[in-house]
Amino acid sequence: MIFSDVWEVVLDEGNSARYVIVNSNHHTEEPVVLTDSLYEFINKFLREGVFEGEEVEGLYSWRKRLKKLSQ
Questions:
Q1: Residue 41 and residue 8: Cα distance in Å, rounded?
Q2: Total number of domains constituting the chain
Q3: What is the C-alpha to C-alpha distance for residues 10 and 22, in angstroms, rounded to an integer?
Q4: pTM above 0.90, yes or no
Q5: How far apart are CA 39 and CA 41, in angstroms?
Q6: Residue 39 burial (C-beta neighbours within 10 Å; 0-12, 13-18, 19+)
Q7: Residues in contact with 25: Cβ distance below 8 Å, sequence separation at least 6, in sequence order
Q8: Does 43 fall in a domain?
């Protein structure tokens, strides 16, 4: 069995040059907007990975933090 997660690029319907990167926890929750910058997303992934560590946030923790801020 393979377990994977999905981060999606959602294009702005009114302006195809604008987008956001979202995660919806395996499509079980409302999408959380992580960023509107591919650079920021790739940088976070390459520097901090997917999972949190002692000194890094990781993509999952980033999502959790941003979800709390949006509520």
A1: 11
A2: 1
A3: 7
A4: no
A5: 5
A6: exposed
A7: 5, 63
A8: yes
